[in-house]
């Protein structure tokens, strides 16, 4: 549904997107995870046709973002990472304004607004002023706003950011509901682990590139797809890191005190081969184990943002 190929974007000396490749399957909830500054907002703004890339291409539902921006806009609902507040507007007026902007006929708007408010659990806020809503309510209203033209694709930039656990749980339920309505959802977060359970696919982004992507189980579960290995040797551990890095199936190697944490993408046979090669390379291996991890740990491990316990 969304296809990004070799996308570049620079801001002065900063490279925000560095040959980004990403594919979001139709009907999936795709979580784009990455630390602040990874390039998530930049990628989403380009997909939302609000910013031009310096190179590469992207298409949404078969429409090219550069040559057919209006077609793309018809297909997507974009929720930016800030809430555009309009003082003195009521919730119903706010949605009416956006419905008008998307050419929803006036005769249909009242019903539509009622349905949207129900979808995001804000029916009782129909007449409330937008600026008086809680943050969680504003986020849900912003979500309703991107649905006024019934888009097939939703691009949600950090919708859970700043929400308390309860508000986040409510948001999750709504996003699950969107999937039942056959929407494709691209959702970003630097704390995606909390949204992990609702995503079918995740892409882990760092420094403008996707460094790991696939079904959530593949990213997180040991044994299938990428797994996390903990390797300990008696000595020469940094030499071992250099030895392992360029090998087949090795995604990344990190040194944590005396041990190495290796993200490995390969079958048991190739894992066995790695162990044999290390031993034949002269290292005394004291530990070679697969570590189970949840999405949060996977994120930490892959982005190198934290220490895996
Ligand atoms: P994320 O959303 O993952 O936190 P961004 O896409 O916002 O990341 O930013 C990626 C990089 O590009 C960062 O280094 C950021 O400082 C830089 N950047 C983003 N937007 C601009 C801009 N308008 N001008 C200059 N630098 C920018
Ligand atoms: Mg951002």
Automatic annotation (TrEMBL):
CDD domains: ABC_DR_subfamily_A
Record keywords: ATP-binding, Nucleotide-binding, Transport
PROSITE patterns named in the record: ABC_TRANSPORTER_2
Matches recorded under InterPro entries: AAA+_ATPase, ABC_transporter-like_ATP-bd, P-loop_NTPase
One of the record's GO molecular function terms: ATP binding
Domain ABC transporter: 2-232
Domain of life of the organism encoding this protein: Bacteria
Pfam families with a match to the protein in the record: ABC_tran
Family: Belongs to the ABC transporter superfamily.
The name this protein goes by in its record: ABC transporter
